[in-house]
Design goal:
Order of helices and strands: HHEEEHEEEHEHEHEHEEHEHEHHH
Distance between the termini: 34 Å
Radius of gyration: 18 Å
Helix content: 25-40%
Strand content: 15-25%
Largest sheet: 8 strands, parallel, barrel
């Protein structure tokens, strides 16, 4: 209700200023306890006990400013970042656009964040608090050795992360998606795994976030590598550089498209990766999820977990709790006693 009251004022501002104000509002909320990992919506993924499968996608809380506020709103987990070793300003503004007529967002942020040291301090300060917080790691745009950047971040963040998510799928850092190439990806994951282990955190699972704009051969190659490296999960998917029919006057902006127009493509990619991996690796469904029905469709298609971001631009951060409540009703309606039973049941 509060979001509905302030939404007109937020939407009168440019998108990035509105987002900053939303983060400040969340930071000012009295902290509520994170949900406990029990009940019909609880699920085990990559050795972690999630109280429910609904999480916040990376990009919302880039600098780990409000993870506990989000967990207190009913989300089963949150993923901070993307975080790079050094602070960086990102791409020139404007770089974030609401496509209101399409319930979508286009962004070309470019991994803007305050750097690893600042985020690490915040995550260390919350040590011991309940709730699952993943850390999405990236490389600096001007880095001479991007694989080394990922290794630095894995070594730095593994001690404070419930899981690490390797982000090689943003379209807004030139050349980054080339790391999805089979040989480059193998080298990258080897470096990240070694760095995590050097930090004494071999039990921290590694997730890999992939793009939706992949050819069948790419999907098969990534699936083989994910199986070989025993990844904790694949996050499917990031934003798309494709452009379905859009109504907004921002439709021609460059960057990654997310929100409702991504839903069909992201769901298909999820099915593709479930088939390519033989359902042997957990999948996290992301892209265009705005209702409990959307989340349920993604779970039935093979997602053990789902994540939101763009829908919260339009519905507010209370959307997570609404979807959690709706999921339990849908699960019971369709005769399942647990979320785990429903995964891949379509």
């Amino acid at each position: 209700m509060l979001f509905r009251l302030i939404k007109p004022a937020l939407f009168a501002l440019d998108s990035e200023t509105g987002h900053r104000l939303a983060l400040r509002a969340l930071a000012a909320l009295p902290l509520r306890a994170a949900a406990g990992a029990h009940g019909p919506l609880a699920i085990q993924v990559a050795g972690l006990a999630f109280p429910n499968p609904v999480g916040v996608a990376a990009g919302f809380d880039k600098d780990a400013e409000v993870p506990d506020a989000l967990l207190g709103l009913g989300f089963g987990f949150t993923e901070v970042g993307s975080i790079t070793p050094l602070p960086q300003a990102g791409n020139p503004k404007p770089r974030l656009f609401r496509l209101v007529e399409d319930s979508a967002v286009i962004n070309r942020m470019g991994f803007n964040n305050g750097g690893g040291a600042a985020a690490l301090a915040r995550l260390q300060a919350r040590a011991g608090r309940p709730g699952i917080v993943g850390v999405n790691i990236g490389a600096n745009k001007d880095s001479a050795d991007r694989i080394a950047d990922y290794a630095v971040m894995a070594r730095m963040m593994a001690p404070v992360a419930d899981y690490l998510c390797v982000n090689i799928s943003s379209p807004n850092t030139p050349g980054l998606r080339a790391l999805q190439d089979e040989s480059a990806l193998t080298g990258l994951l080897d470096a990240v795994i070694a760095a995590r282990d050097e930090a004494g955190c071999a039990a921290v699972p590694i997730f890999l976030k992939v793009a939706p704009d992949l050819e069948p051969a790419d999907i098969d190659a990534i699936a083989r590598i994910a199986l070989d490296k025993q990844l904790g999960a694949l996050v499917v998917s990031n934003t798309t550089i494709s452009r379905p029919a859009l109504r907004s006057h921002h439709a021609g902006e460059t960057g990654g498209l997310s929100g409702a127009p991504l839903r069909k493509l992201a769901t298909q990619r999820l099915r593709d990766f479930r088939k390519a991996t033989g359902a042997a690796i957990p999948l996290v469904g992301v892209g265009g999820i705005a209702t409990a029905e959307h989340a349920w469709e993604r779970i039935r298609a093979g997602a053990s977990l789902v994540q939101l971001y763009s829908a919260m631009v339009y519905e507010g951060p209370g959307l997570g709790g609404q979807i959690v409540r709706g999921l339990e009703a849908l699960m019971r309606r369709d005769g399942f006693s647990s979320i785990a039973e429903a995964v891949g049941s379509e």
